[in-house]
Amino acid sequence: MTAGMERLGEPFGFGGGGEGGRRARRVVRELAAKVVADGDLLDDVELMTSEAVANAVLHGSGLVTVTVSTDGRVLRVEVADDGPARPDPAGADPHGRRRLDHGRGLTVIDALAREWGLDQSPGRTRLWFTVETARPPATT
Q1: In angstroms, how far is CA 35 from the centroid of its own chain?
Q2: pTM for this predicted structure
Q3: Chain centroid, CA 106 distance in Å
Q4: Separation between Cα atoms, residue 2 and residue 55, nearest integer Å
C-alpha cells in the first residue's frame, strides 16, 4: 500500500485453488464498487484482478494475498504470493532470460491500468495495478 491510501476491507488470502481466484475477483469488484461507479471500469478491474491472480497461482508459490486500497481518486489492487516467479524451462528464452508472463496477463494489465508494477524478492512477488476511480471524459 502506498502513502495516502487507505485499505478497502481487510487483505485476504487463499491457496492456489480455483475457488480462491473466483473469490478474489468477486471481493475486489465489491470493494472497488465502493469508489468506482462506472460498470465498464469495474469490469476492467475484475479482469486485471483475474489476470494478476492467475499469474500468482501459476508462477508463484504459497499463499496468495490480495489487498485493495484507495485515496479516493485512485484505486490500487495488489496481488502477492510467497515466492519469486518460478522459471519455466519449457518456455525459457534461448538467451537464458526469464519470462515473467507466459500468456496475456501482463499485456492486459498494461493496456487497462493507469500504472502497474512487479516487485520481486527471494521470498515474495507482488504485482500491483492502479486505475483512476472515474474515467476521464472522452475527447472528440
Answers
A1: 17
A2: 0.82
A3: 9
A4: 22
